[in-house]
Amino acid sequence: MRRIFVVESHDEVLRLWREQAMAGLRVLHLDFHCDLRGLLINRKAQRAYHIWDRFPDVDEGNFLTHALLEGVVSGVRWVHDEPGGRKHDLKTVKYETDVTALIHRFLIFIRRHRGVPIAYEVVSSDQWTGVAAGEILDIDWDFFACQEYLKESIQHRIAEFWKRDFAHLPEHIYICYSPNYSHPTRDEFRRFVSDMATRFEAEVVDVSGPREAKSRVRNNPIATGLYQGARGLYHRVGLALRKRGVY
Question: Of 24, 16, 100, 119, nearest to 58 (Cα)?
């Protein structure tokens, strides 16, 4: 029987894939974010290069990066709405055409880094038509309920999802609630999962659970204020450049 795995945070999906001994997955990734942080992808050559990661542990922003490097995933078709995608995220995948990728491309060249093959595609939500044969379905709830969207738009986004062609039903389905990025809409999330189970004739396997919050509070209030101010300025400037096509 087809199963829908429900998790709290997206990095938990990689743990499931490892436990299930998955390999070479082609992932239909419905998400506001790419979750490929630390990669540079040459879209023409369809190759990916691990260029950096300040936080090498698996987290919700880089779990697909780790999955690709481990051979668990071989392809990612990323679907996002507007707003969404790279121009609304600082911690995002780099492309060969990015200005900030020049130094990485130089280092890749002199080190003769071959990278790893990846079948990579980005599709806007209004152009996405459905699940392709052989794809697994991976959904972040912020695809529907991101805090950057009006809460009143969630039901419309869900309705648009169900208009897609599901001639090819995915054999494996994973969905995360993503509380750090989604509106507090737990009831709507559960209804959506229940509807998926009914329409896809699937069993729901809920492996989510409470997670320990990581505190970023500093003891020194002055240092905290300076840190938060600098961080806010960095994000505003970075996103302003992104929206002008400078990456």
Answer: 16
Chain centre distance of CA 42: 18
Please work out, in degrees rounded to the nearest 5, the angle formed at the alpha carbon of residue 129 by the alpha carbons of 166 and 35.
100
Q: d(Cα 161, Cα 138) in Å, to the nearest integer?
A: 13
CA 120 from chain centre, in angstroms, equals 13
Strand ranges across the sheet with 94-95: 94-95, 39-42, 47-50, 116-117
Same domain, 174 and 246: no
What is the value of pTM for the model shown?
0.90
- Of the CA atoms within 13 Å of residue 102, those in its CB half-sphere come to 4
- Tell me the CA end-to-end span of the chain in Å, nearest whole number: 44
Total domains in the fold of the chain: 2
Instruction: Say whether both 150 and 231 belong to one domain.
Output: no
Q: Which two tokens stand for residue 244?
A: 């002008």
Its domain, for residue 221, covers: 216-247
10 Å CB burial of residue 219 (0-12, 13-18, 19+) is exposed
Residue pLDDT, tens place only, 209-218? 655 545 444 5
